[in-house]
């Protein structure tokens, strides 16, 4: 832990312009620190080449309850901490950046085909116990076929009625728009593109070209690029981008299936993202035919209107994970390391950032207690 609070007006160097690096740069510059960010990318926009910031590829689900299916309770607790922070960040940006990045908190849905009800119930049993930090009433609520049709008319099984559950309090955000807004709304930050950092040490960033930049504090937020300083591995994620004119879908949907974890997430501009959660490989190659067919077939089985959607992009990337699949924050004089967001990057980022800020003696991210209050279903 840092021995003293971070004094005002410090020179801060950040290695990495992913979601952690951008969120820290945005907030620390608002606190009147002199912030510089170094990253190997060509600029702030996504390249969608499998080698940029993983935050661009992510679907942006804010689903602490649903993540209990494959994560520890502390991950869910961090998620409940993060959702109102994202809402507040977007609201503050909206005063200067138009349009503001979308942050919706309308809950999410889990659905299952009739034959898969047993597998779905096993998942739901892990979600049905209140956890620390969980808002009152934020437990899965079963939906009748009529209630599902009223909530999301586009959702219905291709071979019969769907079993469905509503997860109140959850949400989603537009990751590309949020990444861009974190850059655009941080005009005071010195964004140093095409400058990969080879080594990080207290008070200094060593660039790949041999130059050294010295600061009062350096922050390592490079994800998989932080090796060998941290034992991080890359976990492959794959997402299909679709354009679906006329589709009415407001909430993220997870298909509960014995073999697959498939999610369907709406985005502004009549776009829909379909993805799978994780593959334990550092393969950065393009998506395979089998994966693309399985993802799109699964999505079409619960949203038949996607039959006429057009494929915009097949995107892959590596998400940084530590051996225990949990995030880690290390703070000592002159150096902060943040890593290990795994498959929960957007869900966990504000909580991880707030951990680091607290250890540095800095004010936390903004929060609106009632921002984007969730729908209620009766």
Looking at this protein, list some descriptive labels:
378 residues; alpha+beta; six-stranded mixed sheet; 8 helices; globular
Q: Can you walk through the features of this model?
A:
It is built from eight helices and 20 strands. It has helices at 19-30, 54-57, 73-93, 117-127, 145-151, 175-184, 289-302, 345-359; strands at residues 11-15, 34-39, 61-62, 103-104, 108-112, 141-143, 163-167, 171-173, 190-193, 197-201, 204-207, 212-214, 217-220, 233-243, 253-256, 261-267, 271-279, 310-321, 328-332, 335-339. The strands form four sheets. The chain has an eight-stranded mixed β-sheet. A six-stranded mixed β-sheet has the order 9-2-1-13-20-19, with helices on one face. The protein has a three-stranded antiparallel β-sheet with strand order 3-8-4, with helices on one face. Strand 19 (328-332) and strand 20 form a beta hairpin. Helix 1 (19-30) crosses helix 8 (345-359). Mean pLDDT is 92; it is low at 371-378.
Give the topology, please:
Blueprint: E1 11-15, H1 19-30, E2 34-39, H2 54-57, E3 61-62, H3 73-93, E4 103-104, E5 108-112, H4 117-127, E6 141-143, H5 145-151, E7 163-167, E8 171-173, H6 175-184, E9 190-193, E10 197-201, E11 204-207, E12 212-214, E13 217-220, E14 233-243, E15 253-256, E16 261-267, E17 271-279, H7 289-302, E18 310-321, E19 328-332, E20 335-339, H8 345-359
Helix pairs in contact: 1-8, 3-8
